[in-house]
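Q: What does the assembled structure look like for these inputs?
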Amino acid sequence: MHSALLWAALAFYGLGMALSFPSFIRRRATLSPASLGALGFGLLAHGAALALKAMEIHRLPVTDVRGALSVFSFLATTAFFLVYIRYKIASLGIFMVPLAFVLTLISAVDNGALPASPEFRGRWLIIHIASILIGYVGFFITFIAAIMYLFQERELKSKRPRTFYYRLPSLEVCDELYFRSLIIGLPFLTLGIVMGFIGASRQWNGLWELDPKILGALVTWFIYLILFSARMSGSWQGRRSAYLAVLGFATMMVTFLGISFLSGPHGYFPNLGPKP
Amino acid sequence: MNLVLVGINHRTAPVEVREVMNIHETRQAAALSELIRRDGILEALILSTCNRVEVAICARDEVEADPILRKFLTEYHHYDLNAYDRYLYWHRQEDVIRHLFRVASSLDSMILGEPQVLGQMKQAFATAKRVGALNGALHEVVNQSLAVARRVRRETAIGATAISVSYAAVELAKKIFGNLEGKTIFVIGAGKMSELAAKHLLRSGASAIFVSNRTYERAVELAAAFHGTAIRFEELFEHIDRADVVISSTGAPHFVVTREKAEQMLALRKNRPIFFVDIAVPRDIDPAVNELNNAYVYDIDDLAQVVDANKKQRQREAVWAEQIVDQELQKMQRRLASREVVPTIVAIEERLNLIRESETERFRGRLNNLSPEQRETVDALTRGILNKILHGPITELKSGAGHPEQGALVQLIRRIFGVGE
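A:
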């Protein structure tokens, strides 16, 4: 049942994505009601699938890579809707919807084939993972806002309106989105890392602090802290912050996906890499 | 259906000819009444604006409408229409429909996407309705053209972008600041364009405006007109860091805002963006200011470039608009065609009913021996036969509506059932 719902969600996401292309090609600022409807149904199906899985295993289904990806894409799509309701930016969909589609596809394709690592116990772990995922979604939006800002700013400076001038929101909206996603993402990431430290210190011995995933997360966290304080201090550097946000996103992606496959105790593949 | 339209517009005729052919608003009602009095003319519409004069009519099917229209125009304007032949364009049948749809949607206008023509069309429609000149196919077409225009405006961005320099300044300000509410405008110097831009910005939500001029009295005058504040030119740089948008058009031969001054402004504003609109020639704002982060400088050429890009954008949107017009044209043709068959269906029904009644009458004598129920049964029988016979042709007529052979089919069926042409 869960799997069927997930495939239904994927189908709706795909439909919504296809229906949104004309809006972008025709330089529309908003998405058509049809594409929004399809995405909405996809989101409902996706949520139902996750809820069912959660009831089945009595906890949030984040304990394997595919589950985590599924939850991440669900959160990302929800965030997209929240942002769209507030700002009505079609261009956001162009970035987020294909990503949600691909991630959901990966998580649907081979469901539950990986056994959850025996390390995955404890409520702190679930909160740890969930917080980090929410933080990542926030930072993903920060990244997109930064990219949109960069493109729009470049075109406004060049004084030659080309394609982005018509499709992208104003610099102010990009900036607001950037800032708001940052102040949502950072606390959740902080919480997630703290929970992780507490849990790890209880469960593992040895130099778990040097585990690549933990180091990666700390680097990511640090970059975003710099972004946050730069923004708060009022030095609105525009372009420079945007570049740093891109770097932050890159480290985040490496941490989330890449290191998951390398890190021993921390990864989703407990048999690779050294144990503490 | 027999639609004909004749007209001139800004592309086919110079203004001297257009003003001669113009039919003034106050005289349109009388002209329309006169036109529909003519033999063979069923409906009429007159659209007369500064850029076009068009007369559309719906005539009876068998009538040759062109000469009647010519005669009317000749008599109305009291001159020989042949002299103006080369300026006139004629449309017939579905081309009339397409033309009216395009005109209402501003696709035929001098400026694509202009909003005035829809209002002008509405007025022409109202006038014609008032004198009873619209009551059939033409009424449907003009009514629908208003809906098509609304659809085009809704589904395309044909009227959305700025195509004048002052509107372009507002559009850019919105691209930088998003919402203009709470934003401050500084106007340095004076001039038609800067006043226009300031006016548009205020109307789009900007809240505070400061005016500065070498002549303080002039600044006070302008500030009063905008409900703003005047600032002495010497004190300008004490306050200018409050400006989100600076519109400058002084006659100064040197830069009013240099790069250093702009850097200072940005520092005081903690790098909140500034938008400089430099309408002056020679320029007031040092172009090097554009290199600074969060400062955007647009001179008069840059604004013209934006307008050009927007015009091209409108042309792209016009392609989508033409597609909408095509779709609506097809829908309208089907609607009009099915309208056409209704009189035929009614005529055939009447004819057959007549036959039924007259035959029933003929046999009345022999039917008198029947009981009332039996007579009713016979009545139902004849009616049933009639309906069954009618079913075939009616279905054919309705389903064939809109097909090119429809006309021939209608004629044939009319001939077969003997209801005349």
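Strands of chain B lie at 3-9, 41-48, 52-59, 89-92, 184-189, 208-213, 229-232, 245-249, 274-278, 295-299.
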